[in-house]
Design a protein that fits this description.
Four Helix Bundle (Hemerythrin (Met), subunit A); 166 residues
């Protein structure tokens, strides 16, 4: 049987590997985006305005998660879960808005990257929500979940920067 200290160390190592993998994945997507953007036929889509609201929701969820982690406020953890779920609902609403505007995955490369990046990020946020649900029953892993969650917030800001500015 593995001791608690060894398990905690193994969990931190696993988290570091996961975080590095996520960062490499989104870095590779950004590199592909920049490469495709430099090619002929590049045109931008208008990003749905709801993305700015969802960004605020995700950033606020990091604040509530820190309240849950540092002060043990259980209600803050539930608020984090709610804000994360609202973020995902807002992302889906952005997809619906694009659909209503006639912008689909194959419309152009920028649209393709938008759908790809937001979908992959959404899957990671969903995984983060699942981890937070587990952390309700296992508070010892809340710090690990928080590290992943905060990275998802930073990755989203990065993705939004890539899609909106570059």
């Amino acid at each position: 049987m593995i001791g608690a200290t060894a398990r905690a160390g193994a969990n931190r190592t696993l988290l570091a590997a996961i975080l590095a993998s996520v960062m490499m994945l989104f870095t590779a997507f950004a590199a592909a985006y920049l490469e495709r953007m430099a090619a002929r036929g590049w045109s931008r889509i208008a990003l749905p305005q709801i993305l700015w609201l969802t960004t605020g929701l995700l950033l606020a969820s990091s604040v509530t998660l820190e309240l849950a982690r540092r002060r043990g406020l259980r209600i803050a953890l539930y608020l984090t879960l709610a804000l994360g779920a609202l973020f995902l609902a807002g992302q889906f609403a952005a997809w619906l808005q694009l659909r209503a505007d006639g912008v689909f995955l194959p419309t152009n490369p920028h649209a393709s990257f938008f759908y790809l990046l937001t979908a992959v990020h959404g899957v990671h946020v969903l995984a983060g929500l699942a981890a937070l649900v587990v952390a309700r029953a296992r508070p010892a892993v809340l710090g690990l979940c928080a590290a992943f969650w905060h990275l998802m917030g930073a990755v989203w800001v990065y993705v939004l920067f890539v899609l909106a500015v570059l």
